[in-house]
Amino acid sequence: CQCRDTTKKSLEQIELIKRNKEMTEIQEIAMIGTWVYNSELNVLRYTGHGGVMQHNGVIDLDLTTYSSYVLPDDRKNFNEWIVKNKRGDIGETVNFRIRFNEKIFYMKARTLSYEHLENGGFIAEGYAHNVTDIQKSRNDVNMLTLAIDNAVEYITAVNLDGNLIFANHRFRKSMNISMQDDR
């Protein structure tokens, strides 16, 4: 009969499970997923919470199929990033849009690790972040800024000291203030 104290190991396992759950919750809120690409199988395995193809769980796609979802305007940039990854040149982030189920998603992806296989293939791993909401907010701010800047009324903002911090195009033109001056 052998007796062994497994309390420390059990406590470590419980702590790891707790931390993994916390990380999964953060990924879900931030809409971040992880991916692994195996060149031998030409399979991209995506796991996580990007909210694009599958909210939770795992999805396997061949790289050609995934690339076909990338919008044509972004495909060249995306493919150049793929080529760099195939060479083992990792660390760069790529921004691209994909169309899936008639919706457009703004994505940011980065490769974090790269492993050469004995047969000449490789395995690359990284993350993908669905930044659609962030991009839509930027687009809304840009549209509002453009509307204000091109309004026919004078629109200005000054700080408490009376210094001009913003003036739209019409005001700047009428007051001979250069458009290049800081706002």
- Main pleated sheet: 6 strands, antiparallel
Q: Which whole number gives the mean pLDDT?
A: 83
Structural class: alpha+beta
Shape: elongated
Strand order of the largest sheet: 3-2-1-6-5-4
| Cα Rg | 25 Å
Helix proportion: 25-40%
Catalogue the unreliable spans: none
Number of strands: 8
Total helical segments? 5
Straight-line distance between termini: 80 Å
SSE series: HEEEHHEEEHEEH
Beta-strand percent range: 25-35%
Can you walk me through this structure?
There is one protein chain. The chain is an alpha+beta fold and 183 residues long. 38% of the residues lie in helices and 31% in strands. The strands form two sheets. It has a six-stranded antiparallel β-sheet.
Could you give a quick summary of the protein structure above?
This protein is an alpha+beta fold and 183 residues long.
Detail the topology: elements first, then pairings.
Elements: H1 7-30, E1 32-38, E2 43-48, E3 58-62, H2 63-69, H3 72-86, E4 93-100, E5 103-116, E6 122-130, H4 132-149, E7 156-158, E8 164-167, H5 169-174
Keywords:
183 residues; 6-stranded antiparallel β-sheet; 5 helices
